[in-house]
Specification:
The complex is a heterotetramer, with 2 copies of chain A (390 residues) and 2 copies of chain B (342 residues). Chain A has 390 residues and is an alpha+beta fold. Chain A has 11 helices and 8 strands. In chain A, helix 3 runs parallel beside helix 7 and helix 7 packs parallel to helix 9. Chain B is α+β, with helices and mostly antiparallel strands and 342 residues long. Chain B has 2 domains: 187 residues, Acyl-CoA dehydrogenase/oxidase, N-terminal domain (Butyryl-Coa Dehydrogenase, subunit A, domain 1, Orthogonal Bundle); 139 residues, Up-down Bundle (Butyryl-CoA Dehydrogenase, subunit A, domain 3). Chain B is 52% helix and 15% strand. Chain B starts with 6 loop residues before the first helix and ends in a 5-residue tail after the last helix. The chains are: A alpha+beta (390), B alpha+beta (342).
């Protein structure tokens, strides 16, 4: 039970901090997806060229081959420096990359892993469908085998950056016999293939981060299948377990900084009584203190998770605890901001802009839905951690 | 004692409900997103033709002669449809005009010719029978010739043109237009002292009605979705996570509805605890609507997060209404300080 | 939509108030069950003799034959006068009585109804079993028919006042064929019969209000069956719907008075900062205000329920909304009292004693369990009011 | 960095956990309900024999030489068993005695011969290096020769006999004995200034550990019951109303546990934000324990409301611990005022 970082790790932290300070992007991040693509790729390229991409990725794929703890250090410093979330690189770095490393054939690894780290390509996800949300395994986008190709037709939804992506981790149904978990195939889809139609979905906050993707007889080489045909469900499950792994670390650091900004805001603004500063209101002060306490505990929980993973070598179902707590907390903090703002919260300000509390509030509704709803996480915790009967 | 609406009272709003479903569907909000006014002139005139602005104006002044109870039922329907447009301030302004005997203004409002926006005083700003001074938040006021102000001493009508430079503000709610006016020093064109007629309490009851309508619409939307949306081969409503959430929404909607009726009758009959009942109605309805609107997004999952789905319209309108005529903390401070309910 | 009471009703209210003021019990209520029996029966007898028992019961059974609104008036005045809850008479007045009136044969009504109103007998309930709680229909206390008698063996639980009761509404299994809802019989059990063994259950608050009842070949005449043999489930369901009817009115008035006492307490006591009165704490003040608002809305909901019942003639499933909200609110208010008391709440004071906030807090845990758990109520609301699929 | 206990650290408390399960089962609380002391002498001596009171006393003074981290693990076990007896004040008093170099007192505490109760100052009461004055709440102190006081300026030991007339008070918790002493004016027999050693923060961490143990025990009890109790022909744990409640209990327990470890290490290693971490641990653990204890009653239904079931023991101990060493509002006020965590 210790919080000691070794001399090497402390050294590493100093280097990270210095490097980030010196190399972080100075120009404002664009808001259109195409601009974000170029911006995020350029920043990823900078990290790669500086030798900072893929802290815990094996060196053979261009990573640093360091430990989970070094990766934690990186995420912490990255978050503290107020750097943009990985966004366009998220699926490549946190989904497709780890999945390919553990499940793909060598030539697939050789082709795809380094370009992700090097900021050359954008990946997107093609899992959910309009009829297959929480019940992912009921997906129906179908793929027929035609010679050495899969021919895919159907629809996917909630695909971030689909319109600017190069590759997609795609789940398709290759067989309708047996249980619905069988007959699913995990395949790498080239997003530039003919027959793909991408349409943005406008969301609650007025932004259009997500897309629907339509497939009309899209041809994908069988050599792009990861794992075996019809055996994609277990591959998809490992993809999702990576998502619930350490990927929240940067988000947790950002949330901590959001809470500190809110405390600052409550010190500056007049409170609901129109006289005292908001922080003088006992209820608001306690909610802010509670947020500070909870975000501290969330960090402790992240450390416990990393300690556990470092011992067992794999991310366990405990990731669902972090995901559930984190996403509910993001919502609470966003709500708290609105309560501090009062009528000023009615002014819409995009979350991409500093002070964008109202945009952030609307965005927060996505947190307990995307990446597995809170209800799904509670099922996972009940079934897999507590062993409750189904 | 019968707290439920009578058959006659239900009849009064049935035509309005039909009209709203037909002529002011929620989708219209999305369509008019870029327009200066959230509601089109034809729909507004249609409301006037139906007599909605004069529902509680005396018959001799061209109204239907009903009371705040029937108006509350109407506003519940408006809430259900997240109807855009300055209904609340317009209807209250009609009451003000009745109270001060300005028959021309009454007639013009009832006919849908004069629309009245709402203005809220920022901290430090003042209004009295002569002038309004300071900074104002304007709600659906830009296209309206008049704005209504509800200050502690009384209610005022002010000509929008007198407010000086009005700055529009991007609104969280695509169905509500916001603006600010700073450094205002404008004459009051009509004034009703608070003591004469409790216009503010009436406003609270009507705001509560809008919120109750939202709470009910969210309950209904979630219930409908839970019955039809299938996952794991069964409607999602079989899962207690969804079913119990819908049940809690039903509890909140029933609670808000009951207190709305109680408050409306308290105000109409001059019960001594009418202020407590009206403030309670606003607080309880706002809570019900907040909880139900958030639950409705969650029950709809990814679909509930889209612009195309109505779920976000409820969330946003609740936010506007929560901040209208005093927020939760202000009302709670009064509720605990007032004498106990009778 | 009106809150007007007619001149007759206002008159009735005045009479109730006057009579209660003049006739309410003056001596302290005993705490032992035997004492409570005599006390509650005596008070019921006083009401009966004064002509005030059974406001909405038909006159042929000794009631007043008045409307639900008159009964509301009675409950309101009863609650406002701070009179003891009906306790020992509860099952007779609110369960067995209404059930017998709607489902029993004439000679059963003739035998049992008037003695309930007259304060001559105490009734208790024998529905729940250790293995049949929320799943009441799985009850297994069995009854064999032997000539013109039922012979009952088994166990019941959560029976209030069993050790001092004269009669019991008892559910037994008379048949094991068909679904579990079939083969249940609702029977009137004489609690003085040989073979009945009553053992008190001590509960969380240290009191022993409830009992287990053991039946060892207890003989009950078949003429005591209400409805038909094997057809008791529908009788039991109507019993429970009466429980969820207007029975909460008096409790709701008491809860309102509890909230007012708490506001008073918060004005008198020093708050958590050790300086200001508790009511000056923004959070406590808002929780108290919220409680006041919610209890007002609860009353409005009660009025709506009575208005609805008066129109339809029967208590609908909406009673579950009131029961759910009421019992959750009782818990919240009890918790709020503990938060106002701080360390003083650690001193145990029985809820039977004025200022017994800590005893009341412990007791409050029973509220979301007894009479159908909150989970059961949510199922009923979802299934029967909203029509959600099962 | 490895925030989880090492195998060695787990070994340290394994014997204690076994002993508690064997010799201090929760049922003992019910059995001793009417006794003056909640814990019997044999069990207390057994704890001493196991070295529990000297776990973090230096070896040269007869202790085991471990730190607050191992002590936190021990207290988590004590919490799980709702162990009766003044463990917290006794262990803290041993630290005080170590700090002031009173080897005899250390030895006596470690041997289980001197038991130390806890005393809390009522508003307006004071303690300094010389005297304690005013009104005190006493926790498990009546049978103890000494009481420990944790004041803002420092920690004091006072002879119980010097407190004057001590009035026992009926306790909400059958495993904790309460009393009051009013109008106290007693000499302090040992004094440790707050600056010298953060005994109060150590107390917060150990109280948090007790609460975490309770949160975990409630999670486990509910999970076990949900697996075995059948209704409608299936274990009740298949219902999301129960399953999701248990899942939320797992979240709370994990959160409390993680922050407990973080705070214990922060204190042991002298991190500059140790105070924030310790207060946070108490607040987070108290919340986890409160929520889980209440949920545990509800999951157990009628059984959970009986005296015979352990559910109420958790509820009551949480209430005692929440009010020990400062309640939620006090800690939150400090948490928001302190510098941000590092």
């Amino acid at each position: 039970m210790d919080l000691d970082f070794s001399a090497d790790q402390r050294d590493f932290r100093d280097q990270v901090r210095t490097w980030l300070h010196e190399n972080k992007p100075r120009d404002e991040r664009p808001r259109a997806a195409a601009g974000i693509r170029e911006y995020d790729l350029a920043w990823q390229r900078t990290q790669f060229e500086g030798g900072w991409a893929g802290i815990s990725w094996p060196t053979e794929y261009g990573g640093r081959g360091l430990s989970l703890i070094d990766q934690l250090i990186w995420f912490e410093e990255y978050g503290r420096a107020g750097l943009p979330s990985v966004d366009a690189n998220f699926v490549g770095l946190n989904h497709a990359g780890p999945t390919l490393m553990t499940r793909a054939r060598d030539e697939q690894k050789a082709q795809h892993l380094r370009p992700i780290l090097a900021g050359e390509v954008v990946w997107c996800q093609g899992f959910s469908e309009p009829g297959a949300g929480s019940d992912l395994a009921s997906l129906s986008a179908r793929a027929e085998i035609d010679g050495d190709e899969l021919v895919v037709s159907g629809q996917k939804i909630w695909t971030s950056f689909a319109h600017v992506a190069d590759w997609q981790e795609l789940l398709v149904r290759t067989s309708r016999t047996g249980s619905k978990h069988q007959g699913i195939t995990w395949v790498i889809c080239d997003m530039h293939s003919p027959g793909i139609d991408v349409r943005p979905i406008r969301t609650m906050d007025g932004e259009a981060e997500f897309c629907e993707v339509f497939y009309d007889e899209v041809r994908i080489p069988l050599s792009s299948v990861v794992g075996d045909v019809d055996q994609g469900w277990s591959v998809a499950m490992s993809t999702l377990s990576f998502e619930r792994g350490t990927a929240f670390t940067a988000g947790q650091v950002r949330l901590a900084s959001t809470v500190e900004q809110l405390i600052e805001l409550a010190r500056e603004r007049t409170g609901p009584d129109g006289r005292r500063p908001a922080i003088a209101d006992d209820e608001l002060a306690r909610r802010l203190a509670t947020a500070r306490a909870e975000v501290a505990a969330l960090r402790a929980m992240t450390y416990v998770g990393i300690s556990r993973s470092a011992r067992t070598g794999t991310p366990g179902p405990e990731g669902s605890i972090v995901k559930l707590y984190y996403s509910e907390m993001v919502k609470q903090v966003a709500r708290l901001a609105m309560d501090i703002l009062g009528p000023d919260g009615l002014r819409y300000v995009s979350r991409w802009i500093p002070g964008g509390w109202s945009g952030n509030y609307l965005y927060s509704y996505s947190q307990t839905i995307g990446g597995g709803t809170s209800e799904v996480q509670r099922n996972i915790i009940g079934d897999r951690i507590l062993g409750l009967p189904r | 004692m019968d707290l439920l609406p009578s058959a006659d009272q239900q009849d009064v709003v049935r035509a309005a409900a039909d009209f709203l479903a037909q002529e002011m569907p929620r989708d219209r909000i999305r369509q008019r997103e870029a327009e200066a006014s959230s509601v089109d002139a034809a729909a507004w005139t249609g409301c006037a033709d139906l007599g909605l602005f004069g529902l509680s104006v005396p018959e001799e002044l061209g109204g239907a002669g009903f009371g705040v109870e029937e108006e509350a039922l109407l506003f519940r329907e408006l809430g259900r449809h997240v109807a855009p447009g300055p209904f609340l301030s317009t209807v209250l302004a009609a009451q003000l005009a009745v109270a001060i005997g300005d028959a021309d203004l009454v007639a013009s409002i009832v006919a849908g010719k004069t629309t009245v926006g709402l203005a809220a005083l920022r901290a430090g700003s003042t209004v009295d029978e002569d002038r309004v001074r300071g900074d104002l938040d304007l709600i659906d006021a830009v296209e309206a010739p008049l704005v209504l102000l509800l200050g502690p001493a009384g209610a005022a009508l002010v000509e929008t043109g007198q407010l000086g430079a009005v700055q529009t503000v991007p609104s969280i709610d695509p169905g509500v237009r916001l603006a600010t006016a700073t450094g205002v020093d404008a004459p009051v064109s009509a004034w009703l002292p608070a003591a004469t007629r409790p216009l503010y309490l009436r406003g609270l009851v009507l705001a509560a009605a809008l919120l109750v309508g939202i709470a009910e619409a969210c309950r209904d939307a979630s219930t409908e979705y839970a019955k039809t949306r299938e996952q794991f081969g069964r409607p999602i409503g079989v899962n207690q996570a969804v079913k119990h959430r819908c049940a809690d929404m039903a509890v909140q909607a029933e609670l808000g509805m009951a207190q709305l009726y109680f408050a409306a009758v308290s105000l109409a009959s001059g019960r001594p605890d009418a202020e407590l009942q009206a403030r309670t109605a606003k607080v309880v309805a706002a809570h019900a609507a907040t909880v139900n609107a958030a639950s409705n997004v969650q029950v709809h999952g990814g679909m509930g997060y889209t612009w195309e789905n109505d779920a976000h319209l409820f969330v946003k309108r609740v936010e506007v209404l929560e901040n209208l005529l005093g927020g939760r903390t202000e009302h709670l401070a009064e509720i605990v300080a007032l004498p106990a309910p009778q």
